[in-house]
Amino acid sequence: FGNYKEATRGNPNYFLTYGNGKAAARVQDHLRPNGAHRWHNYMKTPNEIKLEEAAVLHYTYTKFSDLTSRRDRCGCKPTKDDVKRCFMLDFDRAAFIIASTATEEEMLQW
């Protein structure tokens, strides 16, 4: 984050994107998602800044109910092989198995 202030020009709402291209953006009029990796603005071309030092913290399950509701929506069996049908990320696979097989206390500890 050594160049963060310079890149954002002091604007705390400037957007950053992380390595695989997912983008975050500053909320503004006429801005809309343009696929999973870009943004589009009907009135002007969005400014893009790329920083090697940037980091995005992604919290998939911010509440206990996020974990249990995702479990309740999936029809996969809680096995290492079957969860591959439903989840791409190893972390999500492990979370689904825990949510499907553990007690509430074990899930909270996990």
UniProtKB/TrEMBL annotation:
InterPro entries: KOBITO1-like (IPR044224). GO terms for biological process: cellulose biosynthetic process; response to abscisic acid. PANTHER family: GLYCOSYLTRANSFERASE-LIKE KOBITO 1 (PTHR46701). This is Variant 4, Glycosyltransferase-like KOBITO 1. It comes from Pisum sativum (Garden pea). The lineage of its organism: Eukaryota, Viridiplantae, Streptophyta, Embryophyta, Tracheophyta.
